[in-house]
């Protein structure tokens, strides 16, 4: 796994998540920009999943529990699509954007925890 990539992912998603939360608190409607933020979140997780498959094969395995790491990663992969589906289904609610923003923040925290499992935690 690539150290700087995981940290950049966590920091970038936190910034995007806070921006979307602020837009949500201003009660702006769900739009293509918010959908794009969720798609970018999912894209970074897919890149991380591919890198997580390749890294152990190249001899750069995690220092922590590999099962715990994959549970975090698979769970994080499910959050953005679920938040977008919830936002699209719940059209009468004015908090759609906030729902997606909180989901992106949750993924940012999970990405940082995955970084800890891969690089810091000793099994």
From TrEMBL:
Q: Which residues cross the membrane?
A: 6-26, 33-57, 69-88, 95-114
Q: What is this protein called?
A: Uncharacterized protein
Which keywords does this Swiss-Prot/TrEMBL entry list? Membrane, Transmembrane, Transmembrane helix
């Amino acid at each position: 796994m690539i150290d700087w990539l995981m940290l950049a992912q966590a920091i970038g998603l936190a910034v995007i998540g806070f921006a979307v939360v602020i837009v949500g608190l201003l009660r702006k409607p769900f739009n293509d920009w918010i959908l794009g933020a969720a798609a970018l979140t999912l894209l970074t997780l897919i890149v991380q999943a591919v890198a997580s498959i390749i890294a152990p094969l190249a001899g750069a395995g995690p220092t922590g529990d590999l099962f715990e790491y994959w549970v975090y990663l698979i769970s994080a992969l499910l959050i953005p699509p679920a938040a977008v589906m919830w936002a699209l289904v719940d059209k009468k609610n004015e908090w759609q954007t906030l729902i997606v923003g909180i989901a992106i923040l949750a993924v940012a925290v999970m990405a940082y925890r995955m970084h800890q499992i891969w690089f810091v935690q000793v099994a």
